[in-house]
Amino acid sequence: MTRLLLWRHGNTDWNAVDRVQGQTDTALNDLGREQALAAAPLLAAMRPDAIVASDLQRARDTADTLAALTGLPVGADPRLRERHYGLFQGLTSPEIAERYPAEYARWRSGDQSPGCEVESLDDMGKRMAEALQAAADVNPGGTVVIATHGGAARQGMGHLLGWPTSILHTVGPLQNCHWTELRLEAGRGWRLRAHNVGVNPATTIPAGI
């Protein structure tokens, strides 16, 4: 059985003000670093065999907190980046709605390709699924922690599971430094075992669905 833990990065200043990051290379803030430090021991207790991260700083720095506990190196894969949000990157939702009202409406309605140079959900899902499958293939029967991004994790999960976008839209988003667990089971393929698992730095009680 191969296990993938899709771990969203910690909080950033852009997360805090709902500014679209996409593939902009932002850093963790103090809260994000605290979240990563709180989550890392829980993931370390699951005895990962490998750690792979998006090459964006916020994901890599999140992964480094786990590497410090496990002694594992962190591999980098640019396919694990967040969705490229084109002209939306760097803007808040109200700013996008004001500047690009038609494209904003399509984006919020779940349109796969809303325009404004935003990467399609299908393209993102395919590259994410390729990266996830590659990590699994290199570590058959092992546990791999994938430090990535919220939207990318959900879409990659969906492609591995064969879920249509209509179903994925019903899955709640990953909170910062929470993770999704997927297992590759013999004769059954990829299975979702847990979603949005993590810990609030203010408590030691794990939570998730």
TrEMBL record:
Keyword tags: Hydrolase
Write the Enzyme Commission number(s) for this entry.
3.1.3.-
Q: Cross-referenced InterPro entries, in alphabetical order?
A: His_Pase_superF_clade-1, His_PPase_superfam, PGM_Phosphatase
Q: Which CDD domains match?
A: HP_PGM_like (cd07067)
- Pfam (any one): His_Phos_1
GO MF annotations for this entry?
hydrolase activity
State the Gene3D superfamilies in the record: Phosphoglycerate mutase-like (3.40.50.1240)
Under PANTHER family, the record lists: BROAD-SPECIFICITY PHOSPHATASE YOR283W-RELATED (PTHR48100), GLUCOSYL-3-PHOSPHOGLYCERATE PHOSPHATASE (PTHR48100:SF62)
In its UniProt entry, what is this protein called?
Histidine phosphatase family protein
- What organism does this protein naturally occur in? Polymorphospora lycopeni
